[in-house]
Write the C-alpha cells for this entry.
Amino acid sequence: MTPADLRALLDDVSLGRLAPDAAHTRLLGTLREQPFEDLGFARVDHHRSIRQGFPEVILGLGKTAEQIAAIAARIVDRGHPLLVTRADEAAWAQVRAVVPDAEYHATARAITLRRNVSPGKGTIAIASAGTSDLPVAEEAAVTAELMGNRIDRIYDVGVAGIHRVLGERERLTSARVIIVVAGMEGALPSVVAGMLDIPVIAVPTSVGYGASFGGIAALLGMLNSCANGVSVVNIDNGYGAGCIASMINHL
Amino acid sequence: MTPADLRALLDDVSLGRLAPDAAHTRLLGTLREQPFEDLGFARVDHHRSIRQGFPEVILGLGKTAEQIAAIAARIVDRGHPLLVTRADEAAWAQVRAVVPDAEYHATARAITLRRNVSPGKGTIAIASAGTSDLPVAEEAAVTAELMGNRIDRIYDVGVAGIHRVLGERERLTSARVIIVVAGMEGALPSVVAGMLDIPVIAVPTSVGYGASFGGIAALLGMLNSCANGVSVVNIDNGYGAGCIASMINHL
Amino acid sequence: MTPADLRALLDDVSLGRLAPDAAHTRLLGTLREQPFEDLGFARVDHHRSIRQGFPEVILGLGKTAEQIAAIAARIVDRGHPLLVTRADEAAWAQVRAVVPDAEYHATARAITLRRNVSPGKGTIAIASAGTSDLPVAEEAAVTAELMGNRIDRIYDVGVAGIHRVLGERERLTSARVIIVVAGMEGALPSVVAGMLDIPVIAVPTSVGYGASFGGIAALLGMLNSCANGVSVVNIDNGYGAGCIASMINHL
Amino acid sequence: MTPADLRALLDDVSLGRLAPDAAHTRLLGTLREQPFEDLGFARVDHHRSIRQGFPEVILGLGKTAEQIAAIAARIVDRGHPLLVTRADEAAWAQVRAVVPDAEYHATARAITLRRNVSPGKGTIAIASAGTSDLPVAEEAAVTAELMGNRIDRIYDVGVAGIHRVLGERERLTSARVIIVVAGMEGALPSVVAGMLDIPVIAVPTSVGYGASFGGIAALLGMLNSCANGVSVVNIDNGYGAGCIASMINHL
Amino acid sequence: MTPADLRALLDDVSLGRLAPDAAHTRLLGTLREQPFEDLGFARVDHHRSIRQGFPEVILGLGKTAEQIAAIAARIVDRGHPLLVTRADEAAWAQVRAVVPDAEYHATARAITLRRNVSPGKGTIAIASAGTSDLPVAEEAAVTAELMGNRIDRIYDVGVAGIHRVLGERERLTSARVIIVVAGMEGALPSVVAGMLDIPVIAVPTSVGYGASFGGIAALLGMLNSCANGVSVVNIDNGYGAGCIASMINHL
Amino acid sequence: MTPADLRALLDDVSLGRLAPDAAHTRLLGTLREQPFEDLGFARVDHHRSIRQGFPEVILGLGKTAEQIAAIAARIVDRGHPLLVTRADEAAWAQVRAVVPDAEYHATARAITLRRNVSPGKGTIAIASAGTSDLPVAEEAAVTAELMGNRIDRIYDVGVAGIHRVLGERERLTSARVIIVVAGMEGALPSVVAGMLDIPVIAVPTSVGYGASFGGIAALLGMLNSCANGVSVVNIDNGYGAGCIASMINHL
Amino acid sequence: MTPADLRALLDDVSLGRLAPDAAHTRLLGTLREQPFEDLGFARVDHHRSIRQGFPEVILGLGKTAEQIAAIAARIVDRGHPLLVTRADEAAWAQVRAVVPDAEYHATARAITLRRNVSPGKGTIAIASAGTSDLPVAEEAAVTAELMGNRIDRIYDVGVAGIHRVLGERERLTSARVIIVVAGMEGALPSVVAGMLDIPVIAVPTSVGYGASFGGIAALLGMLNSCANGVSVVNIDNGYGAGCIASMINHL
Amino acid sequence: MTPADLRALLDDVSLGRLAPDAAHTRLLGTLREQPFEDLGFARVDHHRSIRQGFPEVILGLGKTAEQIAAIAARIVDRGHPLLVTRADEAAWAQVRAVVPDAEYHATARAITLRRNVSPGKGTIAIASAGTSDLPVAEEAAVTAELMGNRIDRIYDVGVAGIHRVLGERERLTSARVIIVVAGMEGALPSVVAGMLDIPVIAVPTSVGYGASFGGIAALLGMLNSCANGVSVVNIDNGYGAGCIASMINHL
C-alpha cells in the first residue's frame, strides 16, 4: 500500500464511499499480510521476486529431498523460475517428479527451470584457475544464466602459467563484471583486477591440499588482494557470486 | 601502440618513410616502455588512470612520511587527484609541505586533493552500525567522493534496534549500490540485503571486544550472510569498499 | 542430613536414646553415601533430580547402544523421566527393548519417557532461522517439553527476509524466555533480542558451508551480539538451551 | 498507535471530525516517527526503556570522551539512569562536567547515575575465580545494581582450591541467578552449575597467559561445560552478564 | 664401550696382545654399530630397552597391518614385551598369526604380550570424567600395566557432579601419580590437582561436540589449569600418559 | 576431624562430658571452617602447605602491587616461604617494604623468601634451547630451588647445533627429572627424551617470530613429540614446570 | 620471436620481400599464439618444458579419472614424460588404457612414463622420520627420479632415537640437496640442517594425531626451525619438494 | 680426529711411541672437546663455519644489547665475519663500541662486519612486492651479500600491476636463485615461479591489515602456490631466505 493508496482510502472513508469497518480491516490486513507461505518446516517467500528481483532460491544443503521437492513445487506453481543449488541426485529425482520440465546441471549440482526474466545489460565473464574449480564456476554460471545474463566462460587460466590469463585480456575487458573462481593460493583475482577497471567478484574454492585448509588460504588471499575492485564471497559460493554479478549487470 | 598504430608503422617502413632501424627501436621500445616511474623504494604507476580509471592511491600504512610525500608529489605533478589512506598527522605534515592544496580528513585518516573525474551515475549509500565504525565508513565515503560519486551517509543504524535501519528503507532504496560497515557480529549487511535488491559491499570492522577477534567475527558473519547480494572486503578496508562501489556506480 | 537432623541425633545420643556406635555409623554413612549407582563404565546419578530438579540425562554421543540402554533402564526403574539425546536408530532399538513405553523423536534424535514434572510458569518460544536448523530446534523443544514447559515453535524466520521475524513479534513477546537457533551468520538472536526485553538463549548450529567452519561463524556472531539479553550455548546444543530455558521458566 | 487508536481515528474521519489530510499526516507520522535522537555520530535511543525495560547504555570502547559525554547528557536529560561501560578517566572527566551527580566505579571502569527502577525479585550471586577477574565481576555487579538488583559478591573461589567454592554452597543456593566470572581454564561455572539447580551466566575473562589466548581457553571451557544450566557471554563482558541476570531476576 | 673398556683395549695394544689393525676395526665398529634393525620401511630399535627402560612400542596409526605384524615379530623374537597402540581388528588378525600369545584389548585398541619388567613402586590412579573417555583411559591403563605398574581405575567422576570426585579423595591420595582423562571442558585435572599434592598427568580427549573442536577445548583447559602439578600430553594420548606415569612410578 | 575424633566427641556427648549444643557447634564448625583468610579481593590459602606440600604462591600477573604486597605479608606472617612470580619492579618495591628479607630475581622476574622446606631426593636438570629462553628457565629454577631442590642449569643447547646437547648427556642422565625450555620449533624436548629414560617436563616459550605465534609452534611441537616421557605445561610457564618437577623429585 | 627475428622481419618489409599485411598478421600472431591446448575443462601447457624445464604435471586431486586420462594422452602424444600425482586406482585404470607403457607407484600414489631428461648433477637425499611418512617421501622420490635425479632414500630416522639420524651423517653429507619428510612435531629438518651445510627442503606430513591438526604442528615446527638452510613446502607436498630439489640439483 | 689419525695413534701405541695413558687421554678428549665457548648465557659456536660454511649469526631478538655485544666480540676475535639481525639502535651502540669496523644497515636492521668468504657462483635476484616489504628484502640482501653473493634488487613489482613484474623477466631469468618477498595476499612468488625455471625462496611479510593476520595470509598463499619451484621460510625471515639462497648459489 503506497502513500497514494492510503490517501485514496482515507478520501473514500471521508466521502462515505468506504465504511470505517472495511477501512479498518484493510489497513490492519496490510500490516499483517504475510508475503510467504508456511509449510511448517519452511516459509516460502513468494514476494521475494518483487522485493529482490528474483524469487526465492532453494539451498539444497541440509534439506531432505522431500523438503526440496515440496518447496520447489510451490515456487513453480506461482510461475517463478526455479533454482536449487547443492542438489544431489536424490533431490533431483524428487524434484523431477513434481517439476517435469526442470533441468539438472551435474557439474554445477543445480536444478533449474527457466522462465522469462529481465535480461542483463552486458556480459558476465567467469574465469577459473583450474579444472578442479569447475563445479563452483558452473554454479555461478548456471545461476547467472537463469537470472537473464549472458556468460563468457574463461576456464583454467591460473597464475602458474601467467600467459594464459594475459592472453585473455580482450575477453575479460569486454565484460561488465567478472567472477573469478580460484582455490589454492587464490591469486587469480588480484592479477585479473590489476589488469582491468571492472568489478571483480572473487570466489575462493576449497580446492587444494595441506595448508589450504579447505579454502581458507584462497579466501585470505582474496580478502588481502592488493588490487582494486575485488570483493569476496564465501568459500565455494558460486551461487552468491552469480547472484551479485547479475544484480550489477542489471543496474 | 594500437593495432592501427602498428599497421601505420609497417606501412611507413614499406613505403621507405621509416628506416627499419628506427622501426626496430620503436617497436622494442613499446614492449619495454615502463608506465611507471621508479623512485628506488617505489614505482609510481602513472598509467593506472588509463588502465583502471583512477590513478594510483597511496596506502600510508608501512611507509615513512617522507616516502608518502615523495610519491604524493609525483602523482600531483602529473595532474592526478591524490588519495592517501591510513595517513597519520606526521604524514599529513610532510604532504602538506609539498602539496599545499591537499585536505586532511581526520576521522577517515585520509589526505586528498580533488581533481575533475567522471561523475558516477547514482548515489552510493553508506550505512554503519555504530559510532565506533565511523573511521572506516568515512574512509569509504572520502574515497568514493574523490572518485566522483554522490554519497548518502546513514550512520548508527545497527541491528540491536532494528527499527533504526527499517526506518531508512527509502534512502537505502534510492541508492545504486550500498556500502554497509559493521563490527561486532556484523549482522547489518544481512538485514540490509534482505530488504532490497541492490548490491551490498560489506566492510567488517575491528570494532568489538573479546571474541570479536579484531573483526574476524564480523568478517565471518558477512561471508556467511544468508541474504543475496552481499560481497565482502577486508577488515577495516573502507578504501576498498569505496573503490568497488565507485566502479559499480560508473558502469 | 540437615542441621536439624544433626541436632536431633545429638540430642538422642545425649539422652541415651541412641548409642554412640549407632550415631557414629549414621554420621559416617552420611558422609560416605554415594548418591549414584556404579555400573563400572558409568555412575548413574539418582540424586540429580533432588539436587538439580531433573534426573540425569544421557548424552548418546560416544556411548554404545548397550551402555545407553543399561543406563536408561536404571533411570526408569527409579521412576524418573528419561531423556537420551543424540540417539541414533541403533540406540533406539536397544532402549525400546528395555523401556517399551519410550518414544523416539527422529528429527530431534532423542528418546523420551514422560513422567510428571512440575510445570513451567510461562511459554518458551523457540525461533529458528532456516529449515536446516530444525534438528537442533527440535532437540531444544523435546527437552523443554519433557521438563514440563509449554513450547511455541516459530520456525524459518531468518534475517534474510526480515519481515518474517518482525511479523512474529506478538508471539515472541508472549514468551517468558526465547531460544533462538541459527546457523550461517547467526544474526537472528541479535535481531530478536533488539526487539524485546526477554532473555534470549542463542544456539549456533553447524549449518552453513565454506567459512561457516562448522558453526564457528554463528557462534562468534552470537557471542558478539550488540543486543542486550543474549547468552549462548555450544554449537548444536539444543539440549542445553532447552534445559536452561526450563530452569528460567520454573523460577 | 494501537488498533483501537486506529479505529477511533477512522471513525473521526468518517464522521467528519477529522479531515483526511490531517489523518493522512498522522498515520504517515506514526510509521515515520523516530524513537531516537540523531546526534550525527550517534542515534540516542530514548524509547529503549519502553521497549527493553532499561534505557540505552553507552559502551565507552571506541568512542571519544566528547562523544560519550554528549550522549550521556541526552540520556540524563530525559530522566533515565545512566550507565557508561569501559569508561577511562578521560571519559569520566568529560561526563562529570555535564552530569555532576554521576559516580565513577574505578575497578569496574563504569560511570553510573542511579534513578528509580523496578526492583528485581531475588538476589544475583556473582562468583569470581581469582583476584584478576575483579574488574569484570565488578562491571557485572555495577550493571545489575543499577538495574535494581540485590547482589551477593563471592570472590576468589577458583577451583584450584575446591573447598573455597564448596564452602559457599549456601550463599549460592540462595540466589535466583548466578554470574560466574573466570579466566584461565574457566572451570568454575561447571563446578557451580553441577552443585545447584539455578541458571548460571558464565563470563570468560582474558585473564591468563600463554595458551589462554586472551580468554579463548576459558570461553571454550565454558561453552563445553558438561554441567546443565550454563550459558555464556563474550569474553570480559561483565555488562552483558549483569544485564541478562537482571532480566531473569525481573521475570 | 665404556672408558674402562677403552683403557683395556689400549693396554692390550700396548702390550702386543692386540694388533693395531684389530683394535682399529673394533674402535671404528663401536662408532658405527647400529642399535637397530633395518626392515626397509622401519628401523626396529632393539637397544631402546637399555636406553629407555622399555623396548620400542608400535604406534599402529598410519602403518599397514603387515608392517605392524613384521615389526611385532622382531620385537618378540628378542624377548621383549610387546605393545601395539591404535591397533584395529585387521592389525590384531595379522599380529595374532605371528605372535600367538598376544592379547587384544578392544576398548583400549591395544595389543600386548606381557613379559617380566621391573615393578613400579606405588599405584597409578587413572581418573576419567565420562563413559566416552574410556578408550583413552584404558589405553593408559594397559600401557602402564604392561610396564609393571599397579593401576587403580576411578571412572566417570566428571565435575558436573562434583561429589563423585570428592568422594574418591582417599583412593586418589593413595596413588603415587595420577592420570586424569577428560574431554569437553577438561576441568577434572584442575579439581583433582587442587585437592592433592601428587603429580597429575592430564590427557585431553576428543570427546565433545560443537566448540570442543576435537579436544582443543579440553587441551586448552588443561594447559591453563590454575592448579599446581598438572602437565599435559597430546589429545587422546593415553599411551603417552601411561608411559610418563610409569617412569615417575619407577623413580 | 578424623573418624577417631568424631567417635571421641560422640562418646563425650553420650557420657555427658559434652553438651549437645557444644557438640553441635563443633560439628557444624568443622564443616564450615575456612582454611583461608579473606582479604576481600583475595582468599589467602594458609592450609595449602598441609594439603599440597607448599604454601600458596602469588601469580603477580593481573594483580596490583598493593594487592601482591598485602598477600605476601600474610603468607610470611604465618612463617611460610614466599614466591611471587611475574613480579615487576613496582611489585618488588611494595613487597620489599613489607618483607625486608625477600630477594628479587630479575631474570626470573620472581620475588622469594627462603624458609626450610623438605629437600628433594635428586637433582632437577633444566635445559634451555637459547639465550632468549633464560627468563622462563630461571623462573623454573628459582621455583624449584625455593621448594628444596638441587638444580643443574644446562643452557643454550638448542638442536640447531645438535652436538651441544649430545655433549651434555652425562649431566642430563644424572638428573631425576628434566625440565626442557624451548621456543621456536620446540624440538629440544623430543631430542632429550629420545636420549634418556627420565621424565621430561617441556616448557614452550613465546620466543620466536613470524609463524611461531607467541609460542604456539613450540607448544604444538612438544605436544606432538614422538619421544616417550614428555609432558607439557603452558607457554612460558616456568613456575608450573618447577613445581611439577619438585613434586616428582620429592616422591 | 627473438629481437633478431623481429629485425629480420622488418628488413624484409623494408626490402619489399614481405608485404606489410603479412608482417602485420605475423606480429599480431606472435602476441596471440597460445602455447597451450584447450580441452574445454583444461588448458594443456605444451610449452612448459621449454619455459620451465619439465612438462606439465597432472595433480590428480579434484579431477575425474576421465579428465586425467585425457590430459595424460595429450602430454604423452607430444613425447613428454608423464607424471600424475595423487592418482588413485581408478585414475590408474583409465590412464593405463590410453598410455600402456605407464607405471603405477602404489605407495607414492603416482603414475609415470619415463622419457629422457637432462640428468641432475649430484644426489638428492630423502630422509623421513617414520614409517607413516613413506607415501609422501616416495612421492618426492618418484618425482625427482622422473626428472633425472639420483636418489638416496634414508627412511625412519626420526629424532625420538637421535642416534639413527646421527649414524647417517655420511650419506647425508654426500647429497647436493636434502629433502626431509616428517610429521608429528616435525623436528627432523632442524636436526639435519644443524649437522650440515646443504640446502634442506622440509616437507611436513599430516601424520600424527590429536594436536598435530593434520600437519599444522609439523608445518609450524619447520617454519620456525632454528637451523639455517631450511625452507618448507605445503603439508604432504612430496611432489613440490621433489621438483624444487631437482631444480637445485640441475643448477 | 679422522680414521687415519686414529690409525696413526694406534700404530704409535703399538710401537711404543705413545704411552697408553697419553693415548687414552687424547681419545677421551676427542669425544669431549666442545666446539663452542660457553659465556654462561650463550654457547658461541666457533666450529660452525667449518660445519656449515658460515660462522654463527646472532639473532638480536630477545637478547640484551650487552649479550649481543659480548657474543659479537668473541666472533670477531676469531676472525669471523659478523652478522647481527633484528638489531635496534641500542644494540648497534653496544656493538660499535667493541667492534669499531662494523656497519649498521638501518632499513635491514642488521649489523655486519665483512670478511673474505668464498664467492657465490651467480646472481641472487631479490624481488619485493611493495615499499613496505623493504626491511625484509634488505635483511635478505645484506645477509646474502655478507656471505659472498652478488645481488640484484627488483623492488615494488607486486601483482596489482602485473606489467611491473612481467617487465623484469630478463633480470629475473639471469639469476641463479630468486628470493621473492611479499605481504598481503602473497601472490608474487606464484607469478614469478610460473614465468621461470629457477628455484624461488618465498618470504611472507607481516605487511597488510585486517585479515592478513600478521602475515598468515601471505604465508598460506605461498605454501599453496600452484607454481613449481616455490619453497617458503618464516614470516619476515629475510635472514633465512638470504642464507638458503647463498647455500644454493654456492653449490
Summary: The radius of gyration of chain H is 22 Å. Chain H has a mean pLDDT of 87. The longest strand of chain H covers residues 123-128.
